[in-house]
């Protein structure tokens, strides 16, 4: 730090301004900036980055820290080495005594805070606020730790040291390594801030986070501490306020069963059940909502850009003194998107008539987007290069790519068909995507600006304004359709999901009747290791907990509507990238010439029941510990009746027994399942869901991921439709539920009509197609009703005419 001798060890928030990020990090600097602007912020102080620097240098541990990093991390791709380095460094920092003068400085300021708040030992939040010397623009958000309800001098000093050590979590070390930041350049400040004894807390945005509408302020809140919302433990109340008039436009009150609160005896944060009388009450009063909106507007005006704000409402203070802002940061998704849509320096804005087409492929996820292309051939390369709003250009994606797909503005791949990984995930995330573009990685230049027209499957050079501008109008019109009450249909309209983090948004926007397909593959990624390696290392509980948490988020968002969880159907090649994948897939001989028809599905559960049992335990945890009985299960890629019977036996041994609130379905995606559907019904299935992606592939003999044969890959083929019809009719006869979760109904209205006419119980589609499909189904059902009425009228007319002909007429000649 240049001129570091002038930096104090501790600075109170009111001394800070936004320019002080290099000294106290973004979190503390913004708290000070808001106080100066007249925003109510809980009092507190920052232990500066300079204090941390003096601590590690004067105690002599700085060199030891960097030696551990150099000696331990030899392979930047090995997660184990990051974990080992983190463990050693954190133990070193947390066991090193804080110099007396520094300890004294922190304690004295804590005592001043106690005096200010008229408390003997005030409860504080101890929050990390990382920064970087000479790298003021670097972002380290979410990589370090926070400790809540800290009380007393000793506990405070321990928490400060833990915050310092959290600068070396495995994730933080990996991030800096990938970004090329020198570890010694990154420092850490700590915010010590009075805890608000939260009656309610949450987040708000000064634009609509889903639509980008800048005329609205969106507020989400729940009882207790805001961590309940961040962790996904509850579905929050949702409020929308007009920014100009401060009038409440939308008020959606959720059922909130859990709250995080301070235990009055221990002072620690505990998870507590919300009493029934408060579960469906608004967590904020109307006056609190309007006051929060007023403050949000003021903060946005001060910073001159849209904000993402955290707030808390104190249970001990009267209104309006009870409303506090605890953090504010620039909103990133829409601001980055708008920035990316602007012509970049050196990029050319062109008319559609003059636009040069660069590549053409299959329009896998609709939308139009302009931005900079980043050509990346591996997830590791993506970690270094992909920024929010970039166009991700690669050969093909798999589940390892999801973190980078989520921040991309559009996606273009060389390979793949309409049902490949890139296509499915892009549709779920609402990102424009073109697949099977053949030479995109060769013909699209890194850093160059392009317009991706994923409606037509074409990529153009430069920014094509005629395409981009109409897309904005369409986006602005979308919320009106979402806001309408759902049309009532006899056929249930479900939604397909794979990423739990978007469940709440999808449930709110689509108002689907449930989840017809919750894929498990992305939950495996959150664990970060091959399941066989986890078992070998004794990490079974880690997998159970990670899967249970992901499933809980979805089940809670849709409760009490059903969520059909499809057990893990990772193909062997998709496991390869995980640590342990090479050993337990390739070396074990599981990777065959065509993984789509190899070692997968129910057959794998029978061969490796210990892995299957972990999933069963996760489901049981969600149903029993969280009380979410709306979770059902589905067994994928079932080839033989025996496989289903054995899988069901394992489920029963793990405490998952069929009943009124627990259904067991199978996927119908193999021709043998179609031909033996009566035998599967005898074996005890409650329902089926058609996986038309694989079923079409296997009936027609076409590799669905091969772009070269996509022109003859068609779910509407008569052979496929006959298979669907056969299964639906047999299932209807025996009272077994029939659904569909493949791509066909999302792509083809005529398939939807066919399914409704055949009598399918439900149809599950991608999030962007739920409302459209519901309206289509309603129209088809009305048409069928009218057709039936006409048929009935015609039959009655015919009966009357026939009756007239047969009427016996008396005649004298008959006597």
Short description:
This protein has 815 residues and is an alpha/beta fold. It is 42% helix and 20% strand. The strands form six sheets. An eight-stranded mixed β-sheet has the order 15-22-21-17-18-19-20-16.
- Uncertain spans: 133-142, 470-484
Give the number of helices.
32
Overall pLDDT score: 84
| Helix-residue proportion | 40-55%
How far the N terminus sits from the C terminus, by CA atoms, comes to: 127 Å
Choose one word for the global shape.
globular
Radius of gyration: 30 Å
How many beta strands in the DSSP annotation?
Answer: 31
Strand numbers in spatial order across the main sheet: 15-22-21-17-18-19-20-16
Class by helix and strand content?
Answer: alpha/beta
Any chance you could write out the topology, listing elements then pairs?
Layout: E1 10-12, H1 21-36, E2 44-47, H2 49-58, H3 61-72, H4 79-95, H5 100-116, E3 124-132, E4 146-150, H6 153-165, H7 170-179, E5 186-194, E6 198-205, E7 216-223, H8 227-230, E8 237-242, E9 248-252, E10 258-262, E11 269-273, H9 276-279, H10 286-303, E12 307-314, E13 323-330, H11 333-341, E14 349-350, E15 357-360, E16 362-365, E17 368-375, H12 379-385, E18 391-394, H13 402-405, E19 410-413, H14 421-429, E20 433-435, H15 440-443, E21 449-453, E22 458-461, E23 463-464, H16 465-483, E24 492-497, H17 503-510, E25 515-518, H18 521-527, H19 531-536, H20 540-558, E26 563-566, H21 572-575, H22 581-586, H23 602-607, H24 609-624, E27 631-635, H25 641-653, E28 664-668, H26 671-675, H27 677-682, E29 687-690, H28 692-700, H29 718-733, E30 737-740, H30 744-747, H31 749-758, E31 762-765, H32 770-806
Parallel strand pairs: 14-23, 17-18, 18-19, 19-20, 24-25, 24-31, 25-26, 26-27, 27-28, 28-29, 29-30
Antiparallel strand pairs: 1-2, 2-5, 3-4, 3-5, 6-7, 6-12, 7-8, 8-9, 10-11, 12-13, 15-22, 16-20, 17-21, 21-22
């Amino acid at each position: 730090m240049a001129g570091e001798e002038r930096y104090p060890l501790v600075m109170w928030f009111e001394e800070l301004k936004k320019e002080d990020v290099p000294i106290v990090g973004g979190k503390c600097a913004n708290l000070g900036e808001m106080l100066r602007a007249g925003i109510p912020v809980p009092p507190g102080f920052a232990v500066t980055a300079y204090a941390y620097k003096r601590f590690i240098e004067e105690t002599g541990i700085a060199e030891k820290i960097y030696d551990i990093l150099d000696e331990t991390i030899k392979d930047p791709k090995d997660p184990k080495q990051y974990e080992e380095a983190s463990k050693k460094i954190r133990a070193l920092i947390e066991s090193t005594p804080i110099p007396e003068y520094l300890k004294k400085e922190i304690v004295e300021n804590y005592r001043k805070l106690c005096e200010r708040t008229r408390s003997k030992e005030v409860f504080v939040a101890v929050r990390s606020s990382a920064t970087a010397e000479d790298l003021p623009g670097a972002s380290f958000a979410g990589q370090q730790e926070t400790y809540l309800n800290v009380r007393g001098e000793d506990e405070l000093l321990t928490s400060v040291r833990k915050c310092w050590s959290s600068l070396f979590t495995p994730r933080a070390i990996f991030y800096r390594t990938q970004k090329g930041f020198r570890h010694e350049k990154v420092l850490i400040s700590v915010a010590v801030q009075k805890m608000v004894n939260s009656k309610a807390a949450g987040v708000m945005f000064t634009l609509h986070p889903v639509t980008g509408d800048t005329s609205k302020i969106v507020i989400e809140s729940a009882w207790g501490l805001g961590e309940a919302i961040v962790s996904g433990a509850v579905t929050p109340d949702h409020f929308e306020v007009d920014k100009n008039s401060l009038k409440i436009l939308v008020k959606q009150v959720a059922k909130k069963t859990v709250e995080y609160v301070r235990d009055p005896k221990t002072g620690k944060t505990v998870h507590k059940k919300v009493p029934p009388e408060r579960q469906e009450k608004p967590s904020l009063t109307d006056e609190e909502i309007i006051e929060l909106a007023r403050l949000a507007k003021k903060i946005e005006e001060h910073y001159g850009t849209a904000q993402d704000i955290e707030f808390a409402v104190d249970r001990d203070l009267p209104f309006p003194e009870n409303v506090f802002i605890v953090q504010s940061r620039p909103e990133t998704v829409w601001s980055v998107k708008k920035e990316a849509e602007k012509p970049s320096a050196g990029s050319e804005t062109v008319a559609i008539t003059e636009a040069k087409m660069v590549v053409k492929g299959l329009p896998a996820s609709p939308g139009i987007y302009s931005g900079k292309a980043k050509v990346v051939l591996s997830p590791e390369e993506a970690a270094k290069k992909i920024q929010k709003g970039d166009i991700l250009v690669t050969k093909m994606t798999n589940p390892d790519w999801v973190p980078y797909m989520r921040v991309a503005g559009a996606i273009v791949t060389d390979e793949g068909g309409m049902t490949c990984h890139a296509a499915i995930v892009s549709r779920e995330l609402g990102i424009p995507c073109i697949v099977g573009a053949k030479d995109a990685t060769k013909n699209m230049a890194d850093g160059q600006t392009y317009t991706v027209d994923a409606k037509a499957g074409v990529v153009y050079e430069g920014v094509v304004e005629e395409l981009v501008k109409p897309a904005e109008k369409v986006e602005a019109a979308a919320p009106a359709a979402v806001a309408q009450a759902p049309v009532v249909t006899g056929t249930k309209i479900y939604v397909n999901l794979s990423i739990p983090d978007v469940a709440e948004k999808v449930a709110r926007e689509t108002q689907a009747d449930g989840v017809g397909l919750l894929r498990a593959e992305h939950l495996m990624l959150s664990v970060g290791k091959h399941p066989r390696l986890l078992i070998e290392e004794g990490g079974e509980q880690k997998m159970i907990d990670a899967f249970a948490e992901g499933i809980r988020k979805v089940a809670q968002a849709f409760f009490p509507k059903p969520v059909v969880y499809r057990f893990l159907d990772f193909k062997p090649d998709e496991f390869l990238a995980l640590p342990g994948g090479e050993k337990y897939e390739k070396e074990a001989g599981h990777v065959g010439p065509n993984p789509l028809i190899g070692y997968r599905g129910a057959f794998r559960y029978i061969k490796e029941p210990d892995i299957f049992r972990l999933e069963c335990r996760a489901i049981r945890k969600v149903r029993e510990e969280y009380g979410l009985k709306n979770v059902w299960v589905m067994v994928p890629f079932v080839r033989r009746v025996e496989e289903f019977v054995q899988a069901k036996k394992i489920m029963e041994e793990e405490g998952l027994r069929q009943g009124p609130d627990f259904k067991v379905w199978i996927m119908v995606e193999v021709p043998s399942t179609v031909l033996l559907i009566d035998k599967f019904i005898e074996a005890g299935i409650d329902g089926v869901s058609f996986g038309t992606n694989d079923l079409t592939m296997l009936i027609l003999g076409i590799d669905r991921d091969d772009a070269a044969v996509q022109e003859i890959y068609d779910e509407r083929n008569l052979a496929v439709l006959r298979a669907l019809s056969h299964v639906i009719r047999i299932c209807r006869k025996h009272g077994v539920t029939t659904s569909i979760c493949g791509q066909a109904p999302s792509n083809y209205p005529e398939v939807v009509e066919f399914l409704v006419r055949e009598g399918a119980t439900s149809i599950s589609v991608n999030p962007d197609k739920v409302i459209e499909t519901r309206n289509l189904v309603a129209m088809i059902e009305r048409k069928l009703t009218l057709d039936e009425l006409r048929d009935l009228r015609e039959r009655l007319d015919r009966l009357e005419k026939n009756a007239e002909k047969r009427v016996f007429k008396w005649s004298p000649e008959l006597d």
